[in-house]
Amino acid sequence: MITRKPNDAATTAHERLFPGHVSALAMTDPELIEYFDNFAFDEVLRHTGDLDERTRLMTQLAAMIAVGAVAEFRVMLGAALTIGVTPVQAKEIVYQAVPYAGMARVFDFLHATNDVLIGRGVELPLEGHSTTNPDTRMEQGLVVQKRIVGEKAVDAMYANAPADEQHIQRFLSGNCFGDHYTRTGLDVPTRELLTFAMLAALGGADTQVKGHVMANLNVGNTRATLLAVLTGLLPFIGYPRTLNALAAVDAAAPTTKKDKA
After folding, report:
1. What is the CATH number of domain 48-129+183-260?
2. Of residues 214, 225, 186, the one with CA closest to residue 95
3. Nearby residues of 207 by Cβ (< 8 Å), 6 or more positions away
4. Does the pLDDT value for residue 139 go beyond 80?
5. 68 phi and psi angles, rounded to 5 deg
6. Which residue of 10, 20, 54, 246 lies most exposed, with the fewest beta carbons within 10 A?
């Protein structure tokens, strides 16, 4: 019987993220693990150079929350902590997911994160990172929302919403942006990359993906960075959702003739 195992580059990358770990699936499903690891931990990584390793791991964790992959999240969170993602950053990824994936889905990931952190000797709760309170969240949220989405776009959202939907617009400003985007622990450009990763992974959120491509560009992230995020997500969220998100990138940030050359 031929022994199947990942190539040297994939093995090295895997060992860096999961030192000393022996995959049970490598024993039961060696062919799949061989070509998955070669793809995810070698071939894909050659095309994510516009993303540093920690940010790549953080966007992958965000996507795993969106698809509901608790077991894989636990494993990848351990890898992220191993290569330098901090406990604060880990928590903020989970908190950032609440307005996009919903608390019903995030609940299990919050407990999983707590379990992993406690297992590594991290004392909880961590120091607070909220910068708003019930009296300031709406005003400060609207400021950051207009910075990210664009002042004209936000004003149009309020102007175009029927009277019986105005509360949803206020929720977006005060809760989504006021409670979450104003937090410290992660900067706004990183939060936007996480949001983009979550929306791409969710599926069925094409309008929101396109909106957050524009938001990423507004806060300084580039087409190249967004493509690197999608490339890193591909092995974990599959081709359909990746290609849908890629179409949103192409629509909002088209390549130029120079880029194509």
Report:
1. 1.20.1290.10
2. 186
3. none
4. yes
5. 80, 25
6. 20
